[in-house]
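Now read the record:
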Amino acid sequence: MQVPAIATTGLGARLTVDLGALKRNWQALNRVSQGALTGAVVKADAYGTGLVQSARALYAAGARFFFTATPDEAVTVRATLPDAHIFVLDGLFPGAAALYVGERLMPALSSLDMLEEWLQACLARNESLPAALHFDTGMNRLGFRLNEASVVRRMITQIGYSPQMIMSHLACADTPAHEKNRTQLALFTSVLAQFPNVPASLANSAGLMTNREMHFQMVRPGIALYGGRAVNGRRNPMQPVVRLEAPILQVKEARTGESVGYGAARTLSRDSRIAIVAIGYADGFLRGLSSSQNRQGARMVIRNRFVPVLGKVSMDTTIVDVTDLGPDLPLPGEMAEIIGPNIGVDEHADVAGTIGYEILTGLRGRYVRSYLD
């Protein structure tokens, strides 16, 4: 039996993705990375903006190298962009070499088992199938250990295999003065000495924006493409890509001493007018954006004025204080700006004690999506 699709009425929250801003962000980063190829990281549904639409826009802007996390993401990009060069950062899943070969995907090989399986596929096809070699230079995430470099070199030399790229990943690039950055750059350089003439890639968004020594032959921007802050403590020069609005459901009066929301976390200190907005944590508006007696929460914008969140964010709704709008009260159906020209993803991230990445990738809510170019 076929399960019917959920109907869309267009009456709920609206997520607008500015593909023109996405293109301009890639082009701006490409100008910074002169001398290196500029890829595009499109994992996690292109940071919540829509994988197919954003990949097309980035390709139109000039990107030719794309980085996904999973094979499923990579297959989607391949169906969308037949001529793109696609790396899979999660590497080679066991037994999946035929899929990667058939879809022309390049795994970021990060273990000896992955490398062995890939080399066997090369031998079976009598072909040097492109892949990246991913070395761990201090993050203790995916990657060959540094002491495995000689083993890796011996394995590829034995069959005359030449990798497409040597790569690693920075742990602290968002803090440019962190000693870890210099350490990882030195370790990565030492690895490259064992693989002469192979292109290299180290810089993420923050590395690209702060240190030309980290550019090598390819840079891999992610968060900066989508308008998020890549470098802590600096003005974010990137254009915002997403706008999120949600409708007001009701405006009502509440009295001094009354509590607001679950857990009675917020008690009113004045007679107030409150608005209930149709967005909640089920839509990616994190519960960490709540307020309490001792903590300021997030803000929204209604009628060009900032209004604070009152109490805990619910699954489907959030309450805001519109008292200071005076007689200029909103009406049900009007839209509140959640993310947009007045409130960036990083402001919400700072309030919730997280990072803009989580705010963006959490935008999987019950939105009417539209794309501008």
